[in-house]
């Protein structure tokens, strides 16, 4: 078996204890990740969390400080052209072919690959058939990004990296883009690693989400697993008999509601139970990282 073969049972991306420093500044502090074939995996985190750095290391564009990284069975620092041909990149933007026409550019890029997609079919897939003869610099932001995706998938990649793909999109362009990613993953079995700071996007698209905050993965799981993991408890709201709005956080909302009913003379006004959401988990992780709670816990764990 050569270094670059990759069996379906292995994760498409496997990362263990990845660290990265820019000069004296540590930005990744020991990341572990497994992304499986056919998954849409989101690396979610605020600006500066280390998402782009992580993705650039996985793409082979940046040398890591330490740790083990395998992408399609190879170390990205030693990936050859065959390996690179199995990966699709949608960078933050290709800005270097402004005067080319859309179909021309795709046809040109197709010549780089052994088994490229048909440019006309690809234009239909990304919804740019009507713009085939338009110059790249005349496209709208959303159309430009869909062309970026078309360029990323022209070589039929097994693995597609999307770095902050919908930044600056209006809601309709964002929705169309999401449908495109879903189609690629569902109908074509492409594994997708997406970075985003947009919770709604992560929840909408991803089978699994890793929350990256301050260079550490704070939580990883399906959107519903992460929502359940919220340290925030369920909130029960109601209006008391004297008309005062009340709210209480509890681990056991049914018990609280049962007690409210038992103590009430009649129906409870405006009763509402709000379960923790993915957003609660995310904000909790971000706030813990910001106030140093996690670093303190890490230090205690190491000292113990
Ligand atoms: P994200 O993509 O989550 O916004 P980045 O990976 O771009 O995060 O950045 C993580 C941290 O590394 C930030 O503090 C950023 O300022 C720093 N950083 C990113 N690229 C470089 C670089 N080339 N040189 C020095 N510091 C960098």
TrEMBL record:
Tree of life domain: Bacteria
GO molecular function: ATP binding
KW Chaperone (keyword) present: no
InterPro entries: AAA+_ATPase, ABC_transporter-like_ATP-bd, ABC_transporter-like_CS, ABC_transporter_ATP-binding, P-loop_NTPase
Membrane topology field: Peripheral membrane protein
Keyword Repeat (UniProt): no
This protein's name: ABC transporter ATP-binding protein
SMART domains: AAA
Chief location category: membrane
Keywords annotated in UniProt: Antibiotic resistance, ATP-binding, Nucleotide-binding, Transport
Domain ABC transporter: 13-239
Subcellular location per the Swiss-Prot or TrEMBL entry: Cell membrane
